[in-house]
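**User:** My hope is that you can spare some time for a protein that puzzles me. I have put the entry right below:
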Amino acid sequence: MATIEQLGYSAFFIALTCIFAIVARRLNERLSKDGLVKDLIFEAIAAAELCGCCFELIIVADNFGVATYAVFLFTLTIWWGRNWGSATACPYTYMEQIVEGEVSFKEAALKIWAQLMGGCCIFRYVQLYWWLELAETHEGRAFEDCKADLQVNLYLGAFIEGFATLCCRLASKVISEKDARFGAFIDSFIGTSLVVAAFNYSGGYFNPVLATALKWGCAGNSALEHIIVYWIGSCLGAVLSVPLFKTNTFRNMFLAEKTKGD
């Protein structure tokens, strides 16, 4: 039976990962010249921090329940929002920017590549900690075969990931435009709630890089199925949020913005 002490080992690892990321960001800020390369390194660091923490959150969810997992995720989401700067560790934010004409396809592709590198390479660091087996919850986890989280039909899974991502992105845009007090907490609460709601169906990743780092190649999903659910599903939901956010109906409903002709 999992104990508070064992939860402490997970909390320690998550905190340690965040500290390493802080140090890495400061070194990049000092040593790298302003420009694309510096931005790519920031993206890689953010993705590594995100995926490193979420690997350990799997341990938390498996042994201490989804409620405990949600508390950790809620807190971390606020932390990341305050420390990542312009980095996102999420591909579809740049896909949205392509649609908006804010970044070139080349720049977006490079940043997504940096995210994937950071997210996927961090597992060796996670694996080392698990291999030490300091807690019973880590026993046998370093080299065990992983299982896919998709528990529903392929296309239903893609819809869940896409629709939840759409809701997350719309909520973030509304909060950002309203400059709401406690906006970060509200945004984190909405995102965490949607993750928990989808947890037992698709896994509730809502981030292709995170899903790929944690679940690519796991038993239960082919590569194509993974791409359809976690890349096409999520990215389509995010991209759809761009035109939907601009519609008069949506803005009148959520931003109380009266448009001409009303």
About this structure: The chain has two domains: 1-144, 147-255. The chain has eleven helices and no strands.
